[in-house]
Design a protein that fits this description.
globular; single chain; 4 strands; 344 residues; disordered C terminus
Length: 344
């Protein structure tokens, strides 16, 4: 038992050393907390019955360690994986954010499908969920509003006024409830959740993400609201357009060519590698914007829209292509998918 504990603590120390090499404070804090929780679960298994789950959890920690180690050594697949976990594209953080989106219950609730059964109320799509489910930025295959109201697996016979219901008889209400809830669960799992809500005030034209502004607008903050984590990831991604590096001969011909450039640490990954990894991450994070007018009457709801991330919008701006003519800029704008319409 002592040798097994020594193995666990050795793995813990090695993992901490690899975590310290990650580039951002958020990534380091995230994996430190995750590692501490995972190791505590391993050490909590003390009796003989719990040895099998203990070994399984220990293998999982070891697998995470090797993945972070490979990421620090320049493996792009491992780096993409740890970024997706840390920023809620997969894993527990994703389900935590989705739980916040699903926790909002509209008032009044929808009518029961089966009059005598309270749990037969159909699922409701809030404005936030409707915007996310119908946007190409938060789903690989966006749905239409018609598909939200009538799931594609629900037969036409479920409509009592349809020809199928007249010929074959009414459709089972219990089956209709099950189909609607199953479709709701499956479709919401495929959402790429945003990390925060951006509040757009039309009266002042301001765009803010602070928690105070979100709560003042009467909406619910999300996951990493007002933490600056999304903005930090965008800064790692950098601008889309970068001027090509100066050739070696031209650098040698400059007067200050004798000055030595600062040497990088042996474990530091190239900036180009980090930019590409964070750009890949940012491309999967949608921006959820709540547009309202603070001068309107109290209680008037605003609209939710989902757009591409800030990096994607920036890479389509004219300033990123200083040598492009008007026809090329027009082609670039057509190449960028349009934002979805406002959802009330």
């Amino acid at each position: 038992m002592n040798s097994q504990k020594a193995t666990i603590f050795s793995l813990y120390r090695s993992f901490r050393r690899q975590i310290n090499l990650l580039p951002s404070e958020y990534l380091r804090q995230f994996f430190r907390i995750k590692l501490s929780d995972d190791v505590r679960r391993v050490l909590a298994c003390k009796n003989a019955i719990a040895q099998k789950p203990k070994l399984s959890r220990l293998r999982r920690v070891s697998k995470d360690f090797h993945r972070v180690e490979a990421a620090n050594n320049g493996s792009y697949k491992s780096y993409d994986r740890i970024l997706r976990v840390a920023y809620g594209r997969i894993g527990p953080l994703k389900w935590t954010i989705l739980k916040q989106l699903l926790s909002k219950v509209p008032e009044p609730p929808p009518d029961r499908i089966i009059a005598a059964v309270e749990k037969s109320r159909p699922p409701t799509y809030t404005p936030e969920l409707t915007a996310l489910l119908t946007s190409p930025y938060s789903r690989h295959k966006p749905l239409t509003k018609k598909q939200l109201q009538w799931p594609h697996k629900l037969p036409a016979r479920a409509d009592p006024k349809s020809e199928e219901a007249r010929l074959l008889g009414p459709f089972s209400k219990r089956r209709e409830v099950n189909i609607r809830w199953r479709e709701f669960t499956q479709q919401t799992k495929r959402i790429l959740p945003p990390l925060q809500v951006v509040v757009h005030d039309q009266s002042s034209g301001s765009l803010e993400t602070s928690r105070h502004t979100v709560e003042r607008a009467g909406i619910q903050p999300l996951g990493l609201q007002d933490t600056g984590i999304y903005e930090e990831a965008v800064s790692f991604a950098g601008p889309r357009f970068r001027r090509p590096p100066v050739p070696k001969r031209e650098r040698a011909a400059r007067p200050h060519a004798t000055e030595q450039e600062p040497q990088k640490e042996p474990t530091e990954l190239p900036r180009r590698f980090l930019r590409r990894r964070f750009r890949q991450l940012i491309s999967s994070i949608p921006v959820l914007t709540y547009t309202h007018n603070s001068g309107d009457a109290p209680g008037k709801p605003g609209n939710y829209t989902v757009s591409g991330n800030l990096f994607r919008q920036h890479m389509k701006s004219a300033s990123d292509y200083p040598n492009a003519d008007a026809s090329l800029l027009q082609w670039l704008q057509q190449d960028c998918p349009e934002e979805n319409k406002d959802t009330k």
